[in-house]
Specification:
Blueprint lengths: L6 H5 L2 H4 L25 E2 L2 E2 L6 E5 L2 E4 H19 L26 H25 L6 H21 L3 H9 L5 H22 L6 H11 L9 E10 L2 H13 L4 H11 L3 H4 L4 E5 L9 H7 L9 E6 L2 E13 H25 L2 E3 L3
Antiparallel strand pairs: 1-2, 3-4, 3-9, 5-6, 5-8, 7-8
Helix pairs in contact: 3-4, 4-7, 4-13, 5-7, 8-13
Length: about 350
């Protein structure tokens, strides 16, 4: 699945999810990694504030504007809460300002610092990758282009259903003056950067012996990852009645993977996977939480065959599962991934030198 495809699906619920949150870019506290303050209003108390359309960070010859920063900040917060929301009780209250809540394990950092630093780090990397992609005449595929347009169409459909014009929605989320054209440009730059980085990773090649040696040298003591990973699709639902209803819809369909994926897009509560039809790739044995024994047992049953499906209850939630295929041994997947990340880290260092970063002062 393309890593950027689900961005719009994640941010479509941002208005509700982030209501009451201090999700605007934070005020600069003088740290080296901090961008200047950017406010989404054009005038506060009669004082001029930085224009969100203006550059706040330069990466090589490319500028990161307040709009682009706010887009990635909002999306990062939204994605983080959608994935980790059920585990944050006592650590983060999404209805309160992030800048007033300490980050766990730190005396100085707040949750706002955490999100800001993560967003700035990723943005700098994406923009460097974007410049390198342009320099090497790398272009998006037709699938990529269609994916971006699909996301834009989904945003417009969401606005129509909510009775809000796109300009109002975008201004509320990213600042007065944010437009569909600017949003599409931001998404295109991000998509090109991610696609280009993926193309770099695809050039890496390792033998099975190299992967096995790396895995044995770096595995956790006592860890056993000999079992094969699997690919499944799943639909997360909160109510038994709805789970039974959706499962019946699938059973009344042609029973294909495409039919299951379509239901996942329409009904699944898991925002991380819904946009991709509930697709979960390279799921390893014992990777599910301890309370999900039935989930694990079903996925890794030796008799499991492509096309198998089931409805399983776990932790007062309901999971519709569709088995796609069994893959490589987990040690091989983990070892290859770690080796790829090491080489990718080395490549990113060369880009940091080629495209130096500077922060624009107000």
């Amino acid at each position: 699945m393309k890593r950027w495809i689900s961005l719009l699906a994640l941010l479509l619920c941002a208005v509700l999810l982030l209501a009451g949150c201090n999700s605007s870019p934070p005020v600069d506290n003088g740290g080296v990694s901090d961008p200047p303050p950017v406010d989404t209003d054009t005038d506060i108390g009669g004082e001029e504030v930085p224009d969100p359309a203006s550059p706040i960070i330069m990466v090589g010859d490319e500028a990161i504007t307040g709009y682009e920063y706010q887009f990635h900040y909002t999306t990062a917060v939204n994605e983080f809460l959608s994935v980790n929301g059920s585990y944050l009780d006592g650590y983060l209250d999404p209805t309160q300002p992030f800048g007033e809540q300490p980050y766990p394990g730190s005396e100085d950092l707040t949750w706002e610092d955490f999100f800001r630093d993560s967003v700035v780090s990723n943005l700098v990397r994406y923009v460097a990758l974007y410049q390198e992609a342009v320099e090497q005449d790398y272009t998006l595929s037709m699938e990529d282009e269609l994916g971006i347009e699909s996301n834009m169409s989904n945003m417009r459909a969401y606005c129509e259903e909510s009775g809000v014009v796109p300009e109002e929605f975008l201004s509320q989320m990213y600042g007065v003056g944010m437009t569909e054209s600017l949003l599409q440009n931001i998404m295109t730059r991000f998509a090109l950067a991610v696609s280009f980085e993926d193309s770099i990773v695809r050039t890496y090649s390792f033998t099975d012996d190299e992967i096995r040696a790396y895995y044995e040298a770096n595995k956790e003591e006592g860890a056993d990852y000999e079992g094969n990973v699997v690919t499944v699709r799943y639909i997360l639902l909160a109510e038994k009645e709805e789970a039974d209803s959706v499962y019946q819809m699938f059973q009344d369909s042609d029973g294909s993977e495409d039919a299951f994926a379509a239901l996942a897009i329409q009904y699944s509560l898991d925002q991380q996977t819904a946009a991709s039809g509930g697709l979960c790739e390279d799921v390893g044995p014992n990777s599910a939480p301890a309370d999900y024994d039935d989930f694990d047992s079903w996925c890794f049953d030796a008799a499991r065959q492509p096309g198998d499906h089931a409805l399983i209850e776990a932790e007062e939630q309901f999971h519709l599962l569709y088995f796609c295929e069994s893959g490589e041994p987990q040690w091989k997947v983990m070892g290859r991934s770690a080796m790829e990340q090491e080489k990718l880290s080395e490549y990113r260092l060369t880009l940091e030198e080629k495209y130096p970063v500077s922060f624009v002062t107000a």
